[in-house]
Amino acid sequence: MDGSSVKDLAYSKVIVYVGDRPAWKTPLNVFRADPWKLTDIPTIIKLRDGVEESRLVEKDIAGGLAAFIKE
């Protein structure tokens, strides 16, 4: 996955590798731009019909994952 298209995803869950540490740290990393706009890893994004519905970022995952999944 190159980070450019979310509308055609048929998966309910996808793990995406954003690159090694130096690749992630560059401001030009494709996942820092549209449509993802990631600022932290890990980030969990919930999509509905290919559109972002909500997201949970690194610092909030441990305490918020159960509620996020139930949404």
UniProtKB/TrEMBL annotation:
One Pfam family here: TXD17-like_Trx
Residue ranges annotated for the Thioredoxin domain, each copy included: 14-61
Domain of life: Eukaryota
InterPro entries: TXNDC17_dom
Protein name: Thioredoxin domain-containing protein
Naturally occurring in which organism (per UniProt): Hypsizygus marmoreus (White beech mushroom)
